[in-house]
Amino acid sequence: MPDTNRQWLLTDRPHGQPTLDAFELVEEPVPEPGPKEVLLKTLWMSVDPYMRGRMRATDSYADYWELDEPMRCHLVGEVVESKHPDWEPGDIATERLQWAEYNVVDGHDLDRIDPDLAPLSTFVGVLGMPGRTAYFGLLEVGEPKPGETVVVSGAAGAVGSVVGQIAKINGCRVVGTAGSDEKVDWLTDELGFDDAINYKETDDYVAALEAACPDGIDVYFDNVGGAITDAVFEHLNEFARVVICGQIALYNLEEQPTGPRKFRMVNTHRLRIQGFIVGDFSNRNEEAMARLGGWVTNGDIQYRETVTEGFERAPEALIGLFEGENIGKQVVHVADVED
Ligand SMILES: NC(=O)c1ccc[n+]([C@@H]2O[C@H](COP(=O)([O-])OP(=O)(O)OC[C@H]3O[C@@H](n4cnc5c(N)ncnc54)[C@H](OP(=O)(O)O)[C@@H]3O)[C@@H](O)[C@H]2O)c1
After folding, report:
1. How remote is the CA of residue 247 from the centroid of ligand 1, in Å?
2. Tens of pLDDT, residues 194-212
3. pTM
4. Beta strands in the chain (DSSP E)
């Protein structure tokens, strides 16, 4: 056991795109677990777009991060010391904890992971929060029906890639937008998307969507917002559902733009536009886990991960999300299970 525990602190509130100087790596003694607590060694960390919102001191559905405090993330860890009766060294668990190599946590708050079920990194990806976001957002909010056309933006990311595949399982025509030819090829050649648009190589999103969606769009799963979303509205069918999952194109903007006002169309086409937060469905996490796990096991859902090696590179991995560097889920590999 090392003497020191490294942590990442947020030391500045970024304006626009976050840069490395907003973060500071510090060392402290490895914390001691108290009664009912365990010491958890971080194995895999998740970095996610929502973290950009936590850096901004504004009211939202969750508390923002205080300056000079450790940030938080979903992680998978190994119990290395336990003072809780349910946990013993070697057990694997997941929880949202500090960006740190070691966390002390009340054993009651941890979720157990069976390491024989799937690779550990998947519990912060396809079998973790992003997978559940895709599952509940598409099925409960989007309500896709067989034969309908589903468009998903940010389609080659952690959430989007799973959304498209669940839509295929449900018998839909699926079109994705993503930011490189490699991503587009992955969607169409390997994940079974019917079509995909590289938005960085497309001047006219309205025309590209018209070509890809000859029968219009019935469900739009929006991870991105901005100009892509404006173009999708041109093709929404009557009674279409728009699922607002995220708006990553807006996260680094200092002023929120006003897009085309489509509310007359919301009226005439009887559209439903609904935002959601994955935690709204937390009482059904086990159901999502069972179904996602089944689809991963039988091959109906494939996944990919972009792995950044080393705890010290976590901020780099986070910033990369806003530059489209990841294909599939962006994870940080911190350590391996102890021998
Ligand atoms: N509602 C919820 O509870 C919930 C839960 C989880 C995630 N989310 C949201 O879901 C979305 C996807 O999250 P994720 O974890 O799956 O991330 P991700 O898609 O794996 O990673 C982010 C991707 O966003 C794209 N992107 C970055 N900047 C962009 C821009 N300016 N315009 C268009 N695309 C841009 C990049 O891909 P390209 O190469 O394609 O640009 C990048 O790879 C985010 O908006 C996130 O906030 C919501």
Report:
1. 7
2. 999 999 999 999 999 999 9
3. 0.98
4. 4-10, 23-29, 37-46, 69-70, 72-82, 92-98, 102-106, 111-113, 149-152, 173-178, 195-198, 217-222, 236-244, 272-275, 305-309, 329-333
